Amino acid sequence: MNARTSEASLADAAARGIRIPPQPQVLLDLAQLMATDDYDARRVAAVIGRDPGLAAMIFKVVHSPALRGTRPPASLEQAIMRIGVGQTLNIARAVALSTSVGDANRRAYELFWRRSRELAELAALVADERVSVCNIFADQAYMAGMFLECGVPVLMQRFPDYCETLLLDERLDFPSLREEDQRFDVDHCSIGYLVARHWHLPEFVAQAILHHDVVPRDELGAVRSLVAILHLANHARLRAQRIHDYNWDRVGLEVLSELGLHPDDLNDYLADLQERGIGSPV
């Protein structure tokens, strides 16, 4: 999907009453500041600080094992200095998304974003550990994990009974999104791609969201590596919760090959992720 096609798809989505959420003003202000090339960690922290809720959530994310380094940062400015301004923008996008799509009073949305955060944290950890193999960084993987299924809450806003089983039991994972898409004649991957483009995510991240159902063979390099990271992160999340990962049956060997892991080492690798405090059963 190219830029012209995505513009047409945006118009088609609007015609069907599907609302692509706009970026919050704080992200627009942050992007504008960075476009001037006259910024430092203090000025970036000041812009983010205009939204105390966003600042607090970013600070919490930066405390995760994959991002904080050996010692947790003591302030938002220190966190920005440690991970870099570009990385901070990626984290800010990911955090802001969860407050821009959905109703905070709706249990289904709360459950959806909790699962997305779990996936994002695991993806960041996998990317950090595999960076020498894939050249995907933790902040990029975290952002991709948060945006991965963002088409779902967008479609839930348009079709209240899309993924209605999310309301039934928090121990259930997502229903078959392919079946949901067929039922409503939509494509949640394409909607997620449109959100990613509208929020100006890097193109390889947007393409990974579009193609994440498989490990794309025609999309090499960063797209394929990022999709593999997301599959492994989701496999770890489901396994920790003792939920069978049917996708892994299809793509597991390709994922491990892309990430430079041997199948015999998978159990130890997943155990190590869980020991680091991420992906434990809820």
TrEMBL record:
Stretches assigned to the HDOD domain: 20-215
SUPFAM superfamilies per the UniProt record, alphabetical: HD-domain/PDEase-like
Gene3D superfamilies assigned to the protein according to its UniProt record, in alphabetical order: Hypothetical protein af1432
Database matches in InterPro entries: HDOD, RNase_Y/CdgJ
Superkingdom assignment: Bacteria
PANTHER family xrefs: HDOD DOMAIN-CONTAINING PROTEIN, PTHR33525
UniProt-recorded name of the protein: HDOD domain-containing protein
Organism listed in the record: Thauera sedimentorum
